[in-house]
Amino acid sequence: MSTHPSPPARPANRPSPGPAGGAGPPGTVLHPFRGIRRSASALSRDRTPAFYVLEQHRGDTLLQRGVVGALDLAASHGAVLPHEHVLAAKVRAQHRITALVGGNPEPVLLVCRDARATDAVLRRATASAPDTVVTGADGIRHTLWRLHDPGHQRELAADLATRSVLIADGHHRYAAAWELRRRRGGRPGPWDRLPALVVDSTRTPLGLRAIHRHLPDLAPREAAARAAAVADVEELDPATRRPPRPGELILVGDGRRYSLTRPRPEPLLRALAGRPGAWRRLDAAVLQCLFIEGVWRPPAGARPVRHLHDGDGEPCSGTLVLLAPPTEDDIWRLAARGVRVPEKTTSFLPKPPPRLLTYHHGHQSRGIRLMGGPRQDRAAPPALTAVRAAPDPPSTRPP
Predict the structure, then answer these.
(1) Distances in whole angstroms, Cα of residue 175 to Cα of each of 80, 94, 124, 186
(2) What does the pLDDT look like over 31-61, one tens digit per residue?
(3) Torsion sign, CA atoms 370, 125, 136, 97
(4) Whose CA is closest to 323, among 237, 272, 228, 247?
(5) DSSP 8-state code for residue 64
């Protein structure tokens, strides 16, 4: 697996904060910042630093409530728990996005638990009229409030400073931010911070889906036959549409469905040699190491494995492998132990929308020009000139 260098390792003598924060330093350090907000027809540049409260609704159903602030990378290092590996190519892609925008067009998604004081501040903020409301093409309504009261800012920051957070989405952006900071040679500046949406999953639980694999050049009957050498294989009724259970992989294609369970201990141990022991109980790791890199090893010139968030359909060719998602508790436990899972193992939802709130490096200390705005002192970056609320293209998710 090709991985990009991660942020500096947590010192061995520093205890990791638990999911609810508390015992050991450090905590999550979040700062207000000057955001650039997108509405349906314009961009708004905030002149004073604020936290931003974000709610996402589908109809009358609240999907998510959280706070967006500027994460202090160095001060929060020991409290931020990554859980997935990153790929160097995607980190480089994120650098290109940061250079084009002049900052970060969307926050990383962080999860905390049972942050009661933070929740109380957010509830007070959302009782007032919002500052920005945008409805996406998928029908989800995104609502922003500026939290600019200094007392409320201190109360929220103090609560988060006692807590650890799990990176739910944004591993590549987080790694790219650390790399940019290193490239600046320790010179202080806005690149020392990264916009982050912190959500308390105790109050508004996130959805957690598996990311499925599509092997376009491997027929399902052949995949099942090879897998039978190292695991139990059962052909299912083609009409069966149930999702896989934990510990099970389901192969789909050519009108057939197969269940793969109970991999043999010896082949599994060989396939996972040198990997964390916890990977033996992680379906995505077993699929990657035992099957994709082992018994299904694609020949030279084969089309690459694709990662799919939607596993409902029949593939046009090859084999679709469906997985069951891990639980959030599983991910917390692994991350707290420093264990990272293979890339594209989890998909937490909903994600913050791109370009709704931009953290622009130059705007933290001086103005920029917005389309149709009053006198400013520098031109807007290209990514800030599109102001209509058209459906967003898929964000480049090096996160």
Answers:
(1) 12, 9, 34, 16
(2) 999 999 998 788 999 999 999 999 999 999 9
(3) positive
(4) 247
(5) E
Q: Give ∠ CA 111-114-115 in degrees, rounded to 5.
A: 80
Q: Which residues partner with 109 through β-bridges? A: 169, 197
State how far the Cα of 38 lies from the Cα of 36, in Å rounded to an integer. Answer: 7
In Å, how far are 17, 60, 196, 230, 329 from 22, measured between CA atoms?
A: 7, 34, 20, 45, 18
Backbone angles phi, psi at 302, to 5 degrees: -70, 150
Full DSSP string of 88-125: HHHHHHHHHHHHHHTEESS-EEEEES--HHHHHHHHHH
Token code pair at residue 58: 């589908």
| H or E stretch covering 208 | strand 207-210
pLDDT per position as a tens digit, 283-296: 999 999 999 999 99
One-letter identity of residue 64: Q
Q: Which residues contact 224 (CB under 8 A, 6 or more apart)?
A: 233, 235, 251, 256, 258, 260
The whole-angstrom distance between residue 199's C-alpha and the CA centroid of its chain comes to 12
Burial of 289 (0-12, 13-18, 19+ CB in 10 A): buried
d(CA 175, CA 96): 13
pTM for this prediction: 0.85
* Residue 204, C-beta contacts closer than 8 angstroms, at least 6 positions apart: 62, 63, 64, 65, 66
Q: Which residues contact 41 (CB under 8 A, 6 or more apart)?
A: 387, 388, 389
Q: How far apart are CA 362 and CA 352, in angstroms?
A: 22
* Whole-Å CA distances, 275 to 117, 261, 281, 290: 39, 21, 12, 12
> What's the confidence (pLDDT) of residue 370?
41
For residue 302, the one-letter residue type is A
Tell me which residue has tokens 């027929």: 219
The 8-class DSSP code of residue 139 comes to S
65: amino acid identity, one letter = R
**Phi, psi (deg, nearest 5) at residue 361:** -60, -50
Q: How many CB atoms lie within 10 A of CB 342?
A: 17
CA 267 to chain CA centroid, Å, is 32
Neighbours of 31 (CB within 10 A): 16
Paired tokens of 63: 């999907």
Nearest alpha carbon to residue 381 among 354, 363, 399, 357: 363
